[in-house]
Amino acid sequence: MFGFRKNRKKLSATAGFIWSMAAVVSSCAIIDLRQLSIATNPVEAAQVLAEGEQISLTFSRPVLETETETLISITSAEEAVDIDFLWEKNTVVLQPVKSLQPATRYFLEIEGRVPLANGAYRDSDILIPFYFLSDEEKMRLFSVSPIEFGITGASDPLIFTFSREPDLSSFTLNFTLTPDTPCTTEKKGNSITVSPDPLWESCTLYEWNIAAAFSSVEKIPLLEPGRGLFLVQEDTSAPEVLDCFPTEYTGAEPVPLSQNMNDIGYTSDIALLFSEPVEASSVTAAFSLDPAVEGHLVCHSDSLYIFSPLDGWDFQTEYSLSVSTGLTAENGNPAIRPFTLSFIPETIAEISITAVEGVGDAQEFFLLDTLSPQNIDVDELDNGSYTFTIFFSQPYPAGYQTELEDRVAFEFMYPGGLSPERRSLLWGPGNTSLSIIYEHITWAPPLPGFTNMYRFTITGGKGTGNGTGGYIKEDLTLIMECDT
């Protein structure tokens, strides 16, 4: 313009030249070389827009609004977003007709020749990816119980588990069931339980649907709609014991030691496998052992229970295990037939006394259990001494020796008098033999015509156990007659 004015001043010298120039100048458009800048919100790639935050474009120069709108779009991988354009001078706000989906990646784009208000054009190629509310992945449906086409009882609930904590009110709005049935919903953690109120219709195929609009508590929507089918069929089967086996229970899945209950070990446990989930209280009430054994019933799973004895099994006892018809399944069905099983712990070996050896003042003897008197020589003085060595078929660890020692006795039997005194005792190599020294064994009878007789005894029973379950079953008695 300033140049134009300068030229007009020079042209006043020659009129013809002025018009000629004027004609030339008036026939030319002004060339606009100014650039067009566009400020956007979102400002940068992968920006997360908050609730209520506007999506906008601000042009540095006036543009033709209607034509410019055709160059602008918001899209996602699934769809193009319908938008309204709200203009205020050089700024346009893009208002989605429907709310954007959280955790969804969108693209704001303006591509093509932007028409300026003065008739010029500027090329634009802007593409900005952004997210709404969250850039994390959408909520997923992890599992459903019952499974697709699964069979369930009339009172059994549906259980849905999601990757995020679900919004219960959103679930209620977006969950449908066909045929329509009254039900209640309850949330626990990432799971929602749908229970019939009061019962599902028996012998009916149901279809459930969860719309994609269902969201988490953070407003993150479901990745895709959910759909499934389940059949309601009332379970009339009776619970029963499928298997019973000895095991060494550690808390892990029990492994059978044998399929023969007679192979049960001294401290082995018993596993009871049921045909279906059973009520824990009914298992406790229905289970019994005869003779009674003190112990604990442990629930490993809803259909597998473990009995652990407190003191171990008796090797010489026949046990009868029973599960009565008081057993009930979780669905309330009672057992029809009782379960009984008899077994004897045959793997537990009896402990036997293999021999008794005596070494005294004047003789030695080696004998087994007998009621026939054994003649023994003693000193005439009242200080006779004998060492008895008892040999066992199994070793006795230290923790089991004292009670056995207390069951050994050597006493005056006939016609009467003071019993010998125990001086010392010693366990032999491998703890399979016990030597006991007794003193003050006398031959002199208290009455003329009588012979002094002594009795050596080992009292059998469970107190003679050695920790393996076996013990000395019977008492052992040795009768000894004194000679000089």
Element layout with pairings:
Elements lengths: L1 H9 L4 H12 L11 E4 L5 E3 L5 E5 L5 H5 L2 E5 L6 E6 L2 E6 L8 E11 L5 E12 L8 E5 L4 E3 L5 E5 L5 H7 E4 L4 E6 L2 E6 L7 E7 L15 E7 L8 E7 L21 E6 L5 H7 E4 L4 E7 L2 E6 L9 E5 L15 E5 L9 E8 L3 E4 L2 E8 L6 E9 L8 H5 L2 E7 L6 E7 L5 E9 L11 E6 L17 E8 L1
Parallel strand pairs: 2-8, 10-16, 26-32
Antiparallel strand pairs: 1-3, 3-6, 4-7, 5-6, 7-8, 9-11, 11-14, 12-15, 13-14, 15-16, 17-18, 18-21, 19-22, 20-21, 22-23, 24-25, 24-27, 27-30, 28-31, 29-30, 31-32
Can you walk me through this structure?
The chain has 484 residues and is mainly beta. It has four domains: 95 residues, Immunoglobulin-like, CATH 2.60.40; 92 residues, Immunoglobulin-like, CATH 2.60.40; 103 residues, Immunoglobulin-like (Sandwich), CATH 2.60.40.3710; 131 residues, Immunoglobulin-like (Sandwich), CATH 2.60.40. Helix content is 9%, strand content 42%. Strands 25-24-27-30-29 form a five-stranded antiparallel beta sheet, with no helix packed on it. A four-stranded antiparallel beta sheet has the order 1-3-6-5, with no helix packed on it. A hairpin with a 3-residue loop joins strand 24 and strand 25.
Question: Can I get a quick summary?
Answer:
This protein is mainly beta and 484 residues long. Helices cover 9% and strands 42% of the residues. It folds into four domains: 38-132, Immunoglobulin-like, CATH 2.60.40.3710; 141-232, Sandwich (Immunoglobulin-like), CATH 2.60.40; 241-343, Immunoglobulin-like (Sandwich); 353-483, Immunoglobulin-like, CATH 2.60.40.
